[in-house]
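Quick one, probably user error.
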């Protein structure tokens, strides 16, 4: 159910992008224990000068493979968030050759009344979900 927004530099081939999205979804399902059919992903590709991802003073430099992942979700436990961060970086390194230092993740939490999946209804509130 989390809504995943992915920002990256505009150079990914279609198959490479699909693999990346599949791996992110797999991490969501594993870490947050959501149904496999709950898949909401939005990709924004940027030219080199349209995305700046600093290191926040940690002493590393990101590459052209840098990716920013924003997760909009109901509240999650600290343990599930930490598991998600690790799963994402492990999968992207192993399967997409993206260095873990190039992966920035931000979690934005909200509540049940903050979601409408269609028809102008808040399905978590109405009991449809």
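Nope, works fine. Designed sequence:
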């Amino acid at each position: 159910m989390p809504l995943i927004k992915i920002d990256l530099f505009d150079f990914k081939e279609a198959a490479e992008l699909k693999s990346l999205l599949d791996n992110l979804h797999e991490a969501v399902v594993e870490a947050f224990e959501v149904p496999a059919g709950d898949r909401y992903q939005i990709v924004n590709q940027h030219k080199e000068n349209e995305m700046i991802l600093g290191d926040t003073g940690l002493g590393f430099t990101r590459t052209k493979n840098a990716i920013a992942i924003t997760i909009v979700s109901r509240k999650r436990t600290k343990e599930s968030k930490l598991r998600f961060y690790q799963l994402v970086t492990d999968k992207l390194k192993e399967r997409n050759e993206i260095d873990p230092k190039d992966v920035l993740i931000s979690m934005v939490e909200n509540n049940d009344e903050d979601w409408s999946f269609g028809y102008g209804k808040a399905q978590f509130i109405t009991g449809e979900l």
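Residues 14-32 form the longest helix (19 residues).
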